[in-house]
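Observation: inputs received (chain + magnesium ion).
Thought: call the complex predictor directly.
Action: predict_structure
Action Input:
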Amino acid sequence: MRPEELNPLFAEVETFEGVGPKLMKPLGKLGLARVKDVAYHLPERFVSRHAIADLDEGGEGEQVIIALTPVEHRASRPGSRGPYRVLAQDAAGNICALTWFGKAAYTAKKLLPVGETRWIAGRLDRYGDMLQIVHPDHVEVESAANMGRLSEPVYRLSEGLTQPRIAGLVEQALARLPELPEWIEPGQLAKAGWPAWRDGLRTAHQSTDDKARDRLAYDELLANSLALLLVKAEGRRRRGQALVGDGALRAKLQLPFALTGAQARSIAEIEGDMAQEAPMLRLLQGDVGAGKTVVALNAMLTAVEAGKQAALLAPTEILSRQHFETLRTMLRPTGVEIALLTGRAKGRERESILIGLMDGSIQLLVGTHAIFQDTVNYRDLGLVVVDEQHRFGVAQRLALAAKGRRAPHTLAMTATPIPRSLTLAQYGEMDVSRLDELPPGRQAIDTRVIPQDRMEDVVEGLARHLAGGQQAYWVCPMVREIDGVPDLADIAAAEARYAGLKERFGDAVVLVHGQLRPEVKDAAMERFASGQARLLVATTVIEVGVDVPAATLMVIEQAERFGLAQLHQLRGRVGRGAEKSTCLLLRGGELSETGRARLALMRETQDGFRIAEEDLALRGGGELLGTRQSGEAAFHIASLDQVQRMLPLAHADARLLMERDGGLTSARGEAARLLLYLFERDWGVQLLRGG
Ligand code: ADP
Ligand code: MG
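Observation:
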């Protein structure tokens, strides 16, 4: 149970004045469910506007306030998804377009009757030879005095919300903030000159105050470090079991290749950890294709040789099936019993697996989350391998760890190349092994950057490719929102491209994107994996996904819109077989210098670690901390810059607090508990009470 001081912060937004059922959906989209979510919905930026009397006074890109009179409404053709425009004139008779996309057009109809002057605030840009304001921030009947501050926050929106609306909610949330005891070390607070928590939050909504922002970000970093340290401390408290294998099973493996140096080193590191009684908490980082599976297999066999069971957790049904097939084949000469358990297993099948796990006849289990449901009990689980670590939270890892009579060793694997400076933030105090060397003989993927307007050539090339019996991926940019307005071009892209390609290639094409139901998505993926379908049109959902060696061509549209780490992950889907693979990066328009440098880097190297480091240097690589869009980011408040600047400090502070007061029972310790709740690291607090 959360302490009651925090109750006002966790009150639902439904209790806000003026929030009815209609607002719940757009608020939900932004993750704004409770007072604290709204209070932490910090402005993306601030605009300072100036009032102008005449459009001639305003230049492109300027934020203005101006009185305009609508002269004509222009709806786009029904069903065309085009914008809704209102032409309006200033006092001097200059014309400007006010433009809305999507459902927001309804607002325009109501707010702007022809012939009636309105005060408009927004950013001027150009539309043909006319000026336009896209999605004005304010439309008011009264004078400029009513139009909010000249410098005002701009919040991230979703469809159905407006700036004034959200500003009103923020105001209500800020009024409800309780005063909380201080969790930051007083010396640190004074030295940095940071405000108290509540003042900090209020200030952050009013101005670009770096101190306030830093304090709030620091809080988040501190919460994270503390929680990770609590996990580590808990791991130390729970005894594990020292596991040493005799090598008998591993000797029977008939690997068709010699291990790389990096594989041998990682295996030695893992064996070293497993031979200790303290439970291993190790991350194996290695690019796609670096050969993580054999390393994991070696660890699992070590556990089995020592008389224990091992489990491998994969993020999706398909991935667990693939792991299962691969491992089963490799294990054949060893006689080790392996089973697959996913949510699909029902009735008899499921029952016999559960029994096998309990009596120990199943030595190795592969599966999805289903493998750590309450009803699944192991005879003696010695090792848990978690593939694609970033898809799972620490809480889940703990739930799994709680399965063994003694804490099992944990090996996490990830193909997301994270720069060294950020590993700590993402993975806390895990030890890291890096597979920084690819198995020999890998063919480089021929990567080319091509202007999008050469689409026809690309499709012809694709046709030849498919006719030659190979498979291909076609990736469209992911759904993205611009100032709260979904970019319709993007949403439409994958579907439209699919429709177009289907016309050309018929049933050989399947479509996969995040908005599809899981069964539909899985079915499409399976059709592609089995070779029935030849071309997979997708958004980025295939990023972590299928291994289809016959897929040797990847087309990525508007490649400049993707993060480099993401491009790298996507490209890793090809080049998995013996055939030479190609990756075509289609660029939408003219690129900035950075944009060019980024795509050039993709052409130049396939080293994920290098790409990650340079991406970080080139553009701050916001995606590296986990894709913000999919809600998997490690941090929501702290920016990449803040993480780099303050994480070591927060980590040291957390460590000091733990050293002095590991049970968090002092006044500051109690405050730190509040902090953990505030940032929903409840699992950290729960460990405390358990221990
Ligand atoms: P990932 O790190 O992406 O999980 P995998 O373990 O799936 O990579 O390995 C990719 C491919 O490389 C597999 O076909 C595997 O058999 C092969 N492989 C792994 N290690 C070596 C090696 N040392 N030499 C040659 N091939 C290897
Ligand atoms: Mg793998």
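Thought: report the result.
Final Answer: The domain at 446-605 is CATH 3.40.50.300 (Rossmann fold). Residues 479-492, 621-633 have pLDDT under 50 and may be disordered.
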